[in-house]
Amino acid sequence: MENDTGEMHDIHKDMVDDITGYLKENMDCFVMVYKGNVISVILPPTVSYKIASTVPGVKGDRAQAGKKPATLETGMEIMIPLHKNEGDTVTLNTLTGETN
Q: Is the dihedral of CA 20, 22, 28, 30 positive or negative?
């Protein structure tokens, strides 16, 4: 829905398959429309997400450069720094998929 006009746009599932893990409820995105059809969805450069689940970090584990797997509130799985825990917030670069 456009914030200014309230106009609704239909977006085909194939267009957002690669970004669904980044999408949050009430998130502001830029949508490119050409002749009434959505041609692109542009995410904000960075978005903060709550960590839904992760494993405890082992302090001596440096095989993966101090990172551990985690699942975000959206269900997307990423690698986060060892010091982050469940319930913490992590900022993710939506262009690279890396944490800041």
A: negative
* Cβ atoms 94, 22 nearer than 8 A: yes
pLDDT tens digits, one per residue of 16-66 = 888 888 989 888 888 888 888 888 889 999 999 999 999 886 666 555 567
How many structural domains compose the chain?
1
pTM value?
Answer: 0.78
Q: 4 near 30, Cβ under 8 Å?
A: no
* Angstrom distances, CA of residue 71 to CA of 32, 36, 92: 30, 36, 13
Identify whether 54 is part of a domain: yes
Residue 63 resides in a domain: yes
Question: What residue numbers bound the domain in which 82 lies?
Answer: 46-93
